[in-house]
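Q: A reviewer asked whether we had any structural model of the full assembly, not just the individual parts. We don't, so I'm hoping you can provide one. Inputs are below.
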Amino acid sequence: MDFAAIGKIFTSYDSKAPMLFNSGAFFFLFIFFLLIYSMVYKVKMARTIYVIAFSLFFYYKASGWYLLLLVGSAVADYLFAIMVSRSKEEWLRKLWLVVSIVFSLGLLAYFKYTNFFVINWNAITGSNFSISEIFLPIGISFYTFQSLSYIIDVYWKKIDVTNNFGDYLFFLTFFPHLVAGPIVKAKLFLPQLKEEVIIKREEVYMGLYLIICGLLKKSVLADYVSQYSDLVFADPGHYSGFENLMAAYCYALQIYCDFSGYSDMAIGLAKIMGFNLGVNFNFPYQAQSITDFWRRWHIALSTWLRDYLYIPLGGNKKGRIRTYINSFITMLLGGLWHGASWKFVFWGGMHGVGLAVHKLFDHKFGNIKIEKNWQKSILKILAWALTFHFVIFLWIFFRAKDFSVAWSMVHQIVFNMDLAFVSPFFSARKLLIIILIFGIITHAVSSETNQRLMKQFVGIPFWAKLAIFVVSVQLAIQFTNESVQPFIYFQF
Amino acid sequence: MKFSELKNLFEVLALFAITFFIVLLYSVSDFNLTVPEFTIQKSSFSKFFASNEKTVKENVAISENDTVISQLVVKTDTVAGQDGNKIVRFDTIMQLDTISKAEFYARVDTSKQRILLIGDSMLEGLMRRLKDYTEYNGHDLKPVIWYSSTTEIFGRCDTLAWFVKQFNPTYVIMVLGANELFIRNIKENRDKYVKNILKQIGNRKYIWVGPPNWKDDTGINDMILENVGSKRFFPSKNLKYKRGRDGAHPVYESSYMWMDSITSYIMKKSMYKIRLDVPPQKTKKTPGATLLSPLR
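A: Here is a predicted structure for the entire assembly that you could use as a starting point for your response.
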């Protein structure tokens, strides 16, 4: 046995191979983690130390010595929150809040947006500043938003400040959500740390069900269809309109399965350990409006933006025009959160426009009553198709390397839709079609059906669960490309 | 601590452990499970149980049978030589694998390509074999050999850009580096030229075929790899060659095998996978290449 190679995987940091939930190394490690966890989870201090140590190790494997940045910002935010809480004067509380926000967003801005700022500054002023490439620590956008939620809630007195640094570090670094969310709010998670952890049979198997779903979504659906979408997005001009359209559909499936697959695994792992991280996706492509879409897609981020940006801006309480503007600003900044690039700003801004238009439409025509059922059905289908294709259209800009590639793809879809390419496509890419159809079917089931399936899974015998798990892991291996693909949301 | 809670945790722990054990057992066994059209793949865990022997899938050949792909497996085995250095032995075996053709092609761009094969004299052997491939797969090929060329020579002028503009390739295969195996401070001296070469290729799909080392280099392979990434770099130095009288250029037969490995890499491992099925025979055709004399 090559112990040196095994040791290297578990000890050294490799920037090209961060530890992922769907990697064999994590699978192996989690077995041992769970074994020791079963011995310590009832003793609060032991559990806290053990989980934090494992989480920090996990982060080290994902981001190397940027681990120190994570710990450093945790210490700073913990102290800032205490200062906010202990200050008697309102202006002093506000000052500490501002200092904390500036500190957190300053770090995020430095690592994520410095290059973007310099490039744009050079373009505007004609100057020639250059800086060396700044490494983006994995998960910084997620844990920064988490710490912001904590300190703002302390300021608003929605939660009590925690005087236990261990609890705060546990909340911030808990490995299931650490590197790619979901963004867990302090008011949901911190109270769980004060209560006794109870490992319920139903929760454990719901967790396993979610892990299986996440594994299949990521390793079978997302990674497989990505091979085709990567090909076309690299050079849309070389493909027909139909092939480009299929690549856009594939990317829509890929990003959903990739990110929701990660979230499912994260939520599932936490459930097995007795913690609740909330819900992050609720069949978003079933949405019949953009507003509905954002209630179903990346729920943790959209509720964060709603609670800490949209509502403080005035929300819908300051008139219709301000509501539209607030929606637009919120989504614009939401787009920028995804990455330091104008394409993300455009993507977010267009979603903001979509939200504003939907609100306007709802205001103008929302009261019209349609009595016949068939008319309601047609309207629903039209609303779904419009929403779905608006989302897909914007995914093109989200995924494409730059605007020219995105427009090239749109151009091919609109002006080069030659149906002669349909038949060769179906004959050459049968497995892709099967996977795409499978992805659509699994997404078309209702939320209730999914809950029912989950409950059925909990109820089946041990050997049946084992068989399903083995087949799922084997399917993931079967479809895995040469190397494990990183999660798309790691880069944000 | 309640026993029922522990039981819940141990049940799920057992599920993880048994699943891991089954997958591991299958991956290290010699047994290959096959269901119609598919071979059940083995996990990469097996590589940790192979002591000092590792197996690298180097070549893919699609048989005329529509449903079967055969794989040429290159086994490498490291042994201690007399002087204490490690010697790598190569052994090749044919292994049948039943991945369906449809599954394989779903990962490969099957459209017609215009391939520009450009680089130093190492192209002489490679271009003949690539001609077989391009004819068989319906692509166009334009070989350009610049004798005694280096990254510096290509990087100092716009010859590459000119050929790119003239031929308008959809795929560029760069074969360069053999004349720079022993340059000192290679990164300081040549990195900028490699970057310029990549700039001339622009946003076209490309791979860079590294030099077929006959001795350890001073860093040319690492430098190119650093610039282009492993999915666009074929490390030729890992192969063994039968060489001509000069001790550097592989003989034609060896060059053909080299090209077979490159095409396999392009189809299976590279960033831009294009269709390059193995042609049934070696025709030894000489493609109409553009020859550029060495700079004096």
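A: Points you may want to mention in the reply: Chain A touches chain B through 49 residues (CB under 8 Å). Chain A has 21 helices and no strands.
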